[in-house]
Amino acid sequence: MALPLSSITNWFLKLNVTEAIDILVVAFLIYQLIMVVKGTRAAHILGGIGMVLLVYLFAAGTNLELLRSILGTLFPYAAIAVIVIFQSEIRRTLARMGRSRWLGLSSQFQRRDSTDDILLAISRLAADKFGALIVVERDTGLRTFIESGVAMNASLSRDLLLSIFQPGGALHDGAAIVQGDRIAAAACFLPLSVNPLLASKLGTRHRAAIGITEEADCISLVVSEETGQISVCAYGEIESEVTIARVEERLAKHLGRKSKREQPPKVLRAPQRHPGAPSESNAEGGWKGAGQL
Fold first, then answer.
1. Helix 244-254 and helix 115-128: axis angle, to 10°?
2. What is the rounded CA–CA span in Å between residue 177 and residue 91?
3. 208 and 138, same structural domain?
4. What are the tens digits of pLDDT across the range 232-264?
């Protein structure tokens, strides 16, 4: 029997502050769960679990004791099964909650990075069609993957990145992991994405770039060895065929900084030239936008 509207209104009016906060927190967690599983395989799994629960309720209501007892025996293990099945989604949810800038208090913990060197290296690698995979660490540590490669702990620079991904080099295969303003390791092994929608469309390098972002809150930059196209991966998703400007924007947003391209450009007065004097050209392999920042 449905409750009258007046009873529901009286119930809400009797809520104290603690009960209201309790309801809001539960609603927030349910919302986060829906947003995490929306459009993923987990949504179908949740649908299957919901169907099993409906069958159990139907069996209990119609006195189907054998079916109810079988399902009742399985329910104590349901919590463990849910944790195993949804371990990636649970990690992603907790990481997303941890990434939230509560009251702006986490800005003081941001680490310095050298995005200009990364952008210069990516630009040159793309122009030369040299395959590369650069992973930029954020809050979640990547020590497990760093230990799988060759430890470097070297200052981040454009020339060092270019040297790492030179074809035929000992460190060319694998990923370079960046921590702040240092290259922690190169030739690192990364987990491949198990997303069936990507397995037949992307190569190993791109699947590894997506796979690491499914495990941690890092961002990975990929240069295709065949086409020289640049891709950006974050949160288990990939954005292909991006420009250097878009790479900088994604890096700045992911690291919680303001993109330099969002700042008002500086007006530089060109030097006076004599008529007929040849104009200067940009240095070969350089990033044209770097001098305009």
1. 150
2. 21
3. yes
4. 999 888 899 899 999 999 888 877 766 555 444
